[in-house]
Specification:
Helix 4 crosses helix 7 and helix 4 runs antiparallel to helix 9. The chain folds into 2 domains: 59 residues, no CATH class; 170 residues, MetI-like fold (Orthogonal Bundle). It is built from 12 helices and no strands. The N and C termini lie close together (6 Å). By secondary structure, the chain is an all-alpha fold.
C-alpha cells in the first residue's frame, strides 16, 4: 500500500509539470496588454511599461519565466498578481468557500444520484426507471446557467424560500441552492451511471448464485451488486470534484459568490496570467490528490483490487 502511494505521488510530478507548463504557455500567449487600464483612460508611460515588464519578467523567454515560476512554486510562492497582490492570500480567502460549495454539490450528487440510480436499476422497465431516465436527460439537456437563473428567480425572488445571493460569510444555508445548481448535471450523470451498472450486475451469474444459495435479494443487491456497481460511480465523482472546483465560475457569478471561480474569471478578463496559473496549479494539485484517494477507495469497495 505504502509503495503504491509513493509511486502515485512520484507519478504526479511529471503530470504537474506538464499541466502547469501548458497552462503557463497558453495564458501568456493570449493577446493583449496587461498594463491596459492601469493608468486610467490614457496609455501608460513607456518608463512605467518597461519597469512593469522588468518586475514581472515579461521580457524573458517563456522557458526562463516558467523555470522562475516553478522555482518560486517549490518554495510555496504562487506568485504576485500584476496589481501586487499575493495569489496565495487571495486563494486563502476564496478557496474555503469554493471547497464548501463543491463539497456540498458532491453530497447532493452522491445521495440523490445513487438513490435515484438504484431505484431505477432494481425497477428496470417500470415507471420509476422511465421517470429517472427522462428527468435526468431533461436536466442534462438544460445549460446550468438556465437552471441556476430559473431556480434563483422562483425560489429566491418570487417565492422567497431561499436567499437570492450569497453573503461574504457563505453559510451552509446560503450555499444550499448554489450547491444544488452546481451539482444538478452531475446528479443526472451519477443516476444514469449507477442505474446502468446496477442493471448489468443484476444479470451477473454471481448474483444469481448468491440468491440460489439462500441469500435474500435485498442483501444480495446491497452487499454484492451495489458495491460492484459503485466502482465506476466513485471514479466519476472523484474526477467531478476537480471539475466542480474549476467549473463553478457560472454558478458563483449567478449567486454572487466570492470564490475561486470568480477570481479565475477576473484574472482571465484582466489578462493577469500569474493569478490564472496560480489558481489552476492549486486545482491541478487537488485533482491529483482526489484521484489518488479514489484509487485507494477501490480496495474498500472491491477487496479483489490490490494495490500491492
Amino acid at each position: 500500500m505504502y509503495k503504491y502511494i509513493l509511486r502515485r505521488l512520484l507519478q504526479m510530478i511529471p503530470v504537474l509539470l506538464g499541466s502547469t507548463f501548458i497552462i503557463f504557455a497558453m495564458v501568456f500567449a493570449l493577446p493583449g496588454d496587461p498594463t491596459a487600464g492601469m493608468c486610467g483612460e490614457r496609455p501608460c508611460a513607456p518608463a512605467f511599461v518597461a519597469k512593469f515588464k522588468q518586475e514581472h519578467n515579461l521580457n524573458d523567454p517563456l522557458p526562463t519565466r516558467y523555470a522562475k515560476y516553478m522555482g518560486n512554486l517549490a518554495q510555496g510562492d504562487l506568485g504576485t498578481t500584476f496589481r501586487d497582490i499575493k495569489v496565495a492570500d487571495e486563494l486563502k480567502q476564496r478557496y474555503p468557500t469554493t471547497a464548501k460549495l463543491a463539497g456540498m454539490a458532491i453530497i447532493f450528487e452522491t445521495l440523490i444520484g445513487v438513490i435515484a440510480g438504484v431505484m431505477a436499476g432494481i425497477r428496470k422497465g417500470k415507471f420509476m426507471d422511465n421517470l429517472v431516465l427522462v428527468s435526468t436527460l431533461f436536466v442534462i439537456a438544460i445549460p446550468i446557467f438556465v437552471i441556476g437563473a430559473t431556480l434563483q428567480y422562483y425560489l429566491g425572488v418570487k417565492w422567497g424560500l431561499r436567499p437570492v445571493t450569497v453573503s461574504p460569510q457563505a453559510t451552509v444555508n446560503e450555499l444550499l441552492l448554489p450547491a444544488f445548481v452546481l451539482g444538478s448535471t452531475s446528479v443526472a450523470y451519477v443516476a444514469r451511471l449507477t442505474r446502468t451498472n446496477l442493471v448489468e450486475n443484476l444479470r451477473a451469474d454471481y448474483l444469481r448464485t448468491a440468491i440460489a444459495k439462500g441469500l435474500t435479494r435485498r442483501r444480495a443487491i446491497g452487499l454484492h451488486a451495489l458495491r460492484n456497481s459503485l466502482i465506476p460511480v466513485v471514479t466519476f465523482i472523484g474526477a467531478d470534484f476537480g471539475g466542480l472546483l474549476g467549473g463553478a465560475i457560472v454558478t458563483e457569478r449567478i449567486f454572487n459568490i466570492q470564490g475561486v471561480g470568480g477570481y479565475l474569471f477576473t484574472g482571465i478578463h484582466n489578462r493577469d496570467g500569474v493569478s490564472v496559473v496560480g489558481t489552476v496549479t492549486v486545482l491541478v494539485l487537488v485533482f491529483l490528490l482526489v484521484n489518488l484517494l479514489v484509487d485507494l477507495l477501490y480496495g474498500v469497495l472491491d477487496p479483489r483490487i490490490s494495490h500491492d
